[in-house]
Specification:
Elements lengths: L16 H33 L4 E11 L2 E9 L6 E8 L5 E9 L5 E9 L6 E9 L4
Antiparallel strand pairs: 1-2, 2-5, 3-4, 3-6
């Protein structure tokens, strides 16, 4: 009895079309993956390099029903200038106070205490963000 062969002999007829398609998909997937990593890296580096000022709220205290005292720390370049925006909210979540703090000192770190006037008793004080001005 003769042995029954399944499939084509190895190496005689070249690669099957399925193997070629798999190889093309792997190459396309690799190229797209590298491109995506490049875009994410570029966006991250661009975002970080544009942040000349960074700040944080060290402490805050509601000193009355209409005022909050905030200790703000800002790190920047020595000659950089800008504005940091603080916000305060009531227990309901409604904004009850907002203040822009101008940062123009010629130091690389600024520690300052700021009072935000509020329309109701505040339950927090947060830094919305800092933006650099073109003057520095």
């Amino acid at each position: 009895m003769a042995a029954v062969r399944e499939g084509l002999p190895d190496g005689r007829y070249g690669r099957s079309s399925d193997q070629r398609a798999d190889r093309k998909l792997k190459i396309i997937g690799s190229v797209l993956g590298v491109a995506l990593l490049g875009v994410v890296g570029w966006a991250g580096a661009s975002y970080i390099s544009k942040q000349d000022l960074s700040g944080r709220v060290i402490t805050w205290k509601a000193v009355s029903d209409h005022a909050v005292k905030v200790h703000l720390e800002i790190v920047k370049g020595t000659d950089d200038k800008g504005v940091c925006t603080l916000r305060s909210q009531a227990e309901s979540g409604a904004e009850v106070g907002r203040k822009d703090v101008t940062v123009d000192q010629r130091t690389d770190q600024v520690d300052t205490e700021v009072t935000i006037r509020t329309t109701q008793r505040a339950t927090n004080a947060v830094l919305v963000g800092c933006t650099s001005s073109d003057g520095g």
